[in-house]
Design a protein that fits this description.
By secondary structure, this protein is α/β, with parallel strands linked by helices. The protein has two domains: 163 residues, HAD superfamily/HAD-like (Rossmann fold), CATH 3.40.50; 63 residues, DNA polymerase, domain 1. It is built from nine helices and nine strands. The strands form two sheets. Strands 1-6-5-4-7-8-9 form a seven-stranded mixed beta sheet, with helices on both faces. 47% of the residues are buried.
């Protein structure tokens, strides 16, 4: 499956670029634990699926899958003894998480505000997640039209995070150079992926915090992020 360009009104915005003279051309967002508080949904889905088959799944097991491709979660559940194919496990995890999202989207504090401010500033955003399309598009479609100009989900790229492919695909969809993008992440694998793609990263608190390193800009929450602070990252 190919990465998705979302449409607003009658025109495709996946190729829109910002007129910002200070180099920030796009902001690329991880999803789970970054813009929506859905990591607990995935952990509960993994734990409950394992329990259905009499398999123990610990909190540490769940944390070890944060930011990873869904195939990694499936392989771990199989290794622990869940007698299902990887495809069956992924489908069941997706079903459980989508069911929770149907109850409402748990936006993290500051997420809707900064996404709206970026849209108003004509700086496009893309969602870059290892969740598969049913979950990614559910979250993206819940945002106001024009919020996310593209979606790259885990089933849309040949290699998942920490490989740079997801972030490179998003930059290509938006028609921008990766060096003119800032990524926003909460996990080690996601931060590694974005930096491998040539991007600076804003790091929000997550289940597993990435260590400090060059090109990583730590904030206490999205409430501390503004359009100007994102621009300043690339101003050096």
């Amino acid at each position: 499956m190919k990465a998705t360009v979302l449409r607003t009104s009658e025109r495709t915005v996946g190729v829109m670029t910002s007129t910002d003279p200070q180099r920030l051309k796009a902001v690329l967002w991880d999803m789970d634990g970054t813009v929506v508080d859905t990591e607990p949904y995935w952990m509960a889905a993994q734990r409950d699926l394992a329990a259905t088959h009499g398999v123990e799944w610990t909190a540490d097991d769940g944390r070890s899958t944060v930011g990873q491709a869904m195939q990694v979660s499936a392989a771990m559940l199989q290794k622990h003894g869940v007698p299902m194919s990887a495809e069956e496990i992924i489908d069941e995890l997706l079903r459980r998480v989508v069911a929770k999202l149907e109850e409402g989207i748990p936006w993290l504090p500051g997420a809707e505000r900064i996404l709206a401010e970026l849209a108003a500033a004509r700086i496009p955003s893309a969602l870059v997640t290892m969740a598969f399309s049913p979950v990614a598009t559910r979250v993206a479609s819940a945002a106001p039209i024009g919020t996310f100009h593209a979606v790259v989900a885990g089933d849309m790229v040949p290699q998942g995070k920490p490989h740079p492919a997801p972030y490179l695909a998003a930059a290509e969809l938006l028609g921008v150079d990766p060096s003119n993008c800032v990524a926003v992440e909460d996990s080690v694998s996601g931060t590694t992926s974005a930096q491998a793609a040539g991007m600076d990263v804003v790091v929000v608190p997550g289940v597993v915090q990435p260590p400090a390193a060059a090109g990583r800009h730590f904030v206490p929450s999205l409430e501390a992020v503004t359009v100007e602070s994102l621009r300043n990252i690339l101003r050096g």
